[in-house]
Amino acid sequence: MNKQQRPSKKGRKQAALGLIVCFVAAIALTGAYTWSHYKDRTQKELELAQAEEQAREDALQKASEEANNIASKAEEKETETDTEEKNTENASNTAENSTSTQTAGSTGQINFSEDDQLLWPVNGNVVMSFSMDKTVYFSTLDQYKYNPALIISGALNDNVIASAPGIVKSIDVLAQTGTTVTMDMGNGYECLYGQLKEVPLKVGDYVNAGDVVGYLSEPTKYYSVEGCNLYFELRKDGQPVNPMDFMAEE
Q: What spans are recorded as compositionally biased (Basic and acidic residues) (predicted)?
């Protein structure tokens, strides 16, 4: 190689300098890329962290609202329950007081005894007398039977009144005596009014002496020959007794 082909010293320096510049430029580009990538990653991580934090806050807020709603509903239900229980208790107390008042007032007045008298329940004649010691003739049945009651004649739709104060024990429809009202008069005494219609009472009602018990109906098939009548029976401790022993004189 001749001297003209050998690179000069100055050229070598320029080449070296160029290489250094290229190297520095490469490092700068790499650093810039790395920094940009790091910056983007950091920003994304920050945004993700913020999103997670917001999601946690939303979840906590939702859980708190649900808990408050549950607590509020439980409180409302408890309040409603307390109110219902209070209303029920008040109603029960009212009913008990009413029952006690009625019982005290009523039972204090139904105290029938052997010394008391009965009002005539209907205006009419006795067509069949009480008879439990011997049989009497029943025209409709054409036979002799014991008769535990008074059969008192009357007209259709006649008023039938209570013979004494009492409480309605039952209202039954029986084959022999039709619509029949049984009245508890106290001390084991009961009075039965049969062959009625349009009874204006219900079980448990308190009835004063003279109050309307019902109206005379058409007779049942057991008393068709005897005609329209009132079946009037008095019992003491479940056993029939003669009403005539207690009837007031008209």
A: 49-65
Q: Which residues pair with 182 in a beta bridge?
A: 170, 192
Mark 225-242 as b/e (b = at least 16 C-beta within 10 Å): ebbbbbbbbbbeeeebbb
DSSP 247: B
List, in sequence order, every beta strand (DSSP E) within the chain: 126-128, 131-138, 143-147, 150-153, 159-161, 166-174, 178-186, 189-197, 206-207, 212-216, 229-236, 239-241
Least Cα distance to 163 among 186, 193, 188, 199 occurs for: 193
Q: Which of 174, 175, 153, 158 is nearest to 225 (CA)?
A: 153
pLDDT in tens, 53-74: 777 777 677 767 776 777 677 6
Phi then psi for residue 153, to 5 deg, are -70, 155
Radius of gyration from C-alpha coordinates of the chain: 54
Q: Which of 207, 18, 222, 26 is nearest to 106 (CA)?
A: 207
pTM: 0.58
* Spatial separation of the C-alpha atoms in residues 155 and 227, rounded to whole Å: 9
Distance separating alpha carbons of residues 175 and 146, to the nearest angstrom: 17
